[in-house]
Design goal:
The protein is mainly alpha-helical and 182 residues long. The chain is built from 8 helices and 2 strands, in the order αββααααααα. The protein has one domain: Up-down Bundle (Growth Hormone, Chain: A), CATH 1.20.1250.10. A two-stranded antiparallel sheet has the order 1-2. Helix 2 packs antiparallel against helix 8. Keywords: Cytokine, Disulfide bond, Secreted, Signal.
Length: 182
């Protein structure tokens, strides 16, 4: 009798796992074709983590007149410079933003860590592409750094976290554009 109960319990656990795997959404990955290189970005996952912290970072942003990352800056990146710009932008977020962003809420800490880890992975994958950076692209990133250092480091990190929707929206658009061209 005990053996039969163990088998039923094992079978029901297996069925439950199978059901959960069927119900869960697959990680949506967009291939970004950057010059001669392709990098997968899980934008749905990034959006999910960002939406967890978005209201907190926006509420904590006391410098609403300052923009670190202007949409026009991203929109004007030359076609052949996408690889370089994405690499430098990931580097900026990994080295300057995520390490200086602080939240007292454990869920927000987990989400920002997940975002940081995703950006590190994207950065590592892009590093293999050996992107060439033009002077204009470097100037764009330098202007992002210049706006960042105008603020106190924690305020700047908070603002940059709030502006992640600009980055994620751009990556979404870039992924859809490169996905349509295949």
């Amino acid at each position: 009798m005990m053996m039969m109960m163990k088998m039923l319990l094992g079978c029901s656990s297996l069925c439950l796992l199978l059901l959960l795997s069927c119900l869960s959404e697959p990680a949506h990955s967009l291939p970004l074709r950057l010059s001669s290189c392709s990098v997968n970005v899980h934008t749905a996952e990034l959006w999910k983590y960002h939406s967890t912290i978005r209201s907190d970072v926006i509420a904590g942003d006391s410098e609403i007149a300052v923009k670190i990352l202007d949409k026009s800056l991203i929109k004007d990146v030359q076609e052949g410079q996408m690889c370089c710009f994405v690499r430098l932008l990931m580097r900026f977020y990994v080295e300057r933003v995520f390490g200086n962003y602080a939240s007292s809420q454990p869920q927000h800490q987990r989400s920002s860590s997940a975002l940081a880890n995703s950006f590190i992975t994207i950065r590592k994958d892009i590093h293999k592409c050996h992107c060439h950076c033009a002077e204009d692209t470097q100037r764009k990133i330098d202007s992002v750094h210049a706006e960042f250092i105008k603020l106190q480091i924690n305020e700047a990190a908070q603002k940059a976290m709030g502006e992640l929707d600009v980055v994620l929206g751009w990556l979404d658009g870039l992924g859809q554009k490169t996905g349509d061209s295949s």
